[in-house]
């Protein structure tokens, strides 16, 4: 265990960073991250190796080029040229859709790899640290500030009474981060209509 010794400060900062990353990923959502990674993968000739992926990236680039060119001309002044570009774009979009459907297995493999990288970079280190540093005392509570039974509870499951270990620290960080993310995201939530008192229909008897 000596080779794994870290200062309490390093453990505190590392676990806080990992838990913050986990919260960010949960807010962004894995499907969004997978979509972003797939877009980068499929549009990069350095990463994409299969023929279909390269064709997909090439057609994406061609669509962007033609779209930009079409925006630079007027549909009224250069109708024939604008229409020709529009037909090319429609054809490319159909071909891109067909390629996208045929790349299902490739996309599933990239999504699986993305999930694995997320797990290895955020979840696995937390479990490793919880095992290696489960008995490390991160800091101590000044005697007499809290009741003895509360000090005992905060020290669970491996710390001595009066000390704060990794389990308690992670619980506190998770709680605080959850509250912060809730406060920050609350203004952007969908508004709920104010409930209105139902209007009694005519002829209804009041009780």
Automatic annotation (TrEMBL):
Domain of life, per lineage: Eukaryota
Localization: Endoplasmic reticulum membrane; Golgi apparatus membrane
A UniProt-annotated Pfam family: CHD5
Membrane topology note: Multi-pass membrane protein
GO molecular function, one term: protein-membrane adaptor activity
Lumenal side: 1-11
Keywords: Coiled coil, Endoplasmic reticulum, ER-Golgi transport, Golgi apparatus, Membrane, Transmembrane, Transmembrane helix, Transport
Ribosomal protein keyword on record: no
Record field: transmembrane: 6-25, 116-133, 153-177
Chief localisation class: endoplasmic reticulum
Sequence ranges on the Cytoplasmic membrane side: 181-207
Described purpose of this protein according to its UniProt entry: Required for the post-translational delivery of tail-anchored (TA) proteins to the endoplasmic reticulum. Together with GET2, acts as a membrane receptor for soluble GET3, which recognizes and selectively binds the transmembrane domain of TA proteins in the cytosol. The GET complex cooperates with the HDEL receptor ERD2 to mediate the ATP-dependent retrieval of resident ER proteins that contain a C-terminal H-D-E-L retention signal from the Golgi to the ER.
UniProt family annotation: Belongs to the WRB/GET1 family.
Official protein name in the record: Golgi to ER traffic protein 1
Gene name in the database record: GET1
């Amino acid at each position: 265990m000596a080779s794994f010794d870290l200062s309490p400060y390093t453990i505190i900062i590392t676990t806080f960073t990992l838990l913050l990353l986990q919260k960010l990923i949960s807010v962004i959502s894995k499907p969004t991250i997978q979509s972003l990674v797939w877009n980068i993968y499929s549009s990069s000739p350095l990463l994409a190796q299969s023929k279909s992926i390269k064709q997909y990236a090439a057609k994406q680039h061609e669509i962007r080029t033609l779209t930009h060119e079409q925006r630079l001309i007027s549909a009224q002044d250069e109708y024939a040229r604008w229409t020709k570009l529009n037909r090319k774009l429609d054809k490319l979009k159909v071909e891109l859709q067909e390629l996208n459907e045929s790349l299902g297995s490739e996309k599933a493999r990239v999504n699986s790899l993305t999930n694995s990288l997320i797990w290895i970079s955020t979840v696995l280190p937390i479990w490793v640290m919880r095992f290696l540093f489960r008995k490390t005392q991160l800091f101590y509570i000044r005697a007499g500030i809290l009741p003895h039974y509360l000090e005992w509870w905060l020290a669970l499951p491996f710390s001595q009474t009066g000390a704060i270990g990794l389990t308690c620290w992670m619980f506190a960080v998770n709680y605080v981060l959850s509250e912060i993310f809730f406060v920050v995201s609350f203004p952007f939530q969908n508004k709920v209509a104010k409930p209105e008192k139902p209007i009694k229909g005519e002829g209804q008897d009041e009780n």
